[in-house]
Amino acid sequence: MLDLKTADQILNAALAHGRAAGMKPLCVAVLDAGGALVALKREDGASFLRPQVANAKAWGALGMGTGTRALAARAQTHPAFINAIGALTEGRIVPVPGGVLIRAANQSILGAVGISGDVSENDEACAVAGIQAAGMSADTGA
């Protein structure tokens, strides 16, 4: 189970990684395995749409069972599929890197992290750093 204490640890480590790397202001969403929001933080200066984008990245990773890097690759080769998924979910999936699954030691999915604010690859790196800082495995979909 992904509890609030662990979600907060992930958030803080992800944001610290972004600050240390000099990234743009970030928003981090942590969802549990059922897709419910556990915690969210938006840094000062992050635009008002960042929470929705971060949540959509995490939600899409959970819904498809893979990190959003895989969804981004699939969008290149199978755009009709990604368009259909977008329509089915009423636009709740953002198929770019930055949505990362949180996996337990036995590889079960505990939840997902979505980050928005910088370029997608940097968002993803912050998510990975946060998840690893909490002692869990990050699955980007690579």
Describe this structure in words.
By secondary structure, the protein is α+β, with helices and mostly antiparallel strands. The chain is 46% helix and 20% strand. The chain contains 5 helices and 5 strands; from the N terminus they run αββαααββαβ. It has helices spanning 4-20, 50-64, 68-77, 79-88, 120-133, and strands at residues 27-32, 37-42, 99-103, 109-116, 137-139. Strands 2-1-4-3-5 form a 5-stranded antiparallel beta sheet. α1 (4-20) crosses α5. The radius of gyration is 14 Å and the shape is globular. The chain starts with a helix and ends with a strand. The mean pLDDT is 95.
Brief rundown of the structure:
This protein is an alpha+beta fold. It has helices at residues 4-20, 50-64, 68-77, 79-88, 120-133; strands at 27-32, 37-42, 99-103, 109-116, 137-139. It has a 5-stranded antiparallel sheet.
**Element string (H = helix, E = strand):** HEEHHHEEHE
Number of strand segments:
5
Task: Round the Cα radius of gyration to an integer and report it.
Answer: 14 Å
Helical stretch tally: 5
Extract low-pLDDT stretches: none
| Secondary structure: helix percent | 40-55%
What is the approximate shape?
A: globular
Strand content: 15-25%
**Order of the strands making up the biggest sheet:** 2-1-4-3-5
Spatial separation of the terminal alpha carbons: 24 Å
Structural class computed from helices and strand pairing: alpha+beta
Kindly state the mean pLDDT as a whole number? 95
**Largest sheet geometry:** 5 strands, antiparallel
